[in-house]
Specification:
The chain is mainly α and 82 residues long. Helices cover 84% and strands 0% of the residues.
C-alpha cells in the first residue's frame, strides 16, 4: 500500500516539474488568433499546392491556381497587419 502512495507522489512531482518548465505564452488573444489563422492558411496552401502538382485537367488546374493566389494574398495580408 505504501508503495502505491509513493508512486503517486513521484508522479505528481514529475508532473509539477514538467509544468514549471513550460514557457509562458505571452501573446495576446489577437496574436494567437492571427497565428492560428496563418497556420490554417498555410496548411490549406500546402494541400492545394500538392493537388496542383497532380492535376491534369486545365479547368481544375486553373481553379487550384486561383485558390493558391487567393491564399497567398491572405497570408500577405496577415503578415502586414500590425
Amino acid at each position: 500500500m505504501a508503495r502505491g502512495w509513493e508512486s503517486k507522489a513521484i508522479e505528481s512531482q514529475q508532473d509539477e516539474a514538467s509544468r514549471e518548465r513550460q514557457p509562458v505564452d505571452r501573446r495576446t488573444d489577437a496574436q494567437r488568433a492571427r497565428d492560428a489563422k496563418r497556420y490554417e492558411l498555410s496548411l490549406s496552401r500546402s494541400r492545394i499546392a500538392a493537388d496542383l502538382e497532380h492535376a491534369t485537367h486545365p479547368a481544375h488546374r486553373e481553379t487550384l491556381t486561383r485558390a493558391l493566389s487567393a491564399l497567398d494574398a491572405h497570408l500577405r495580408d496577415l503578415d502586414t497587419e500590425p
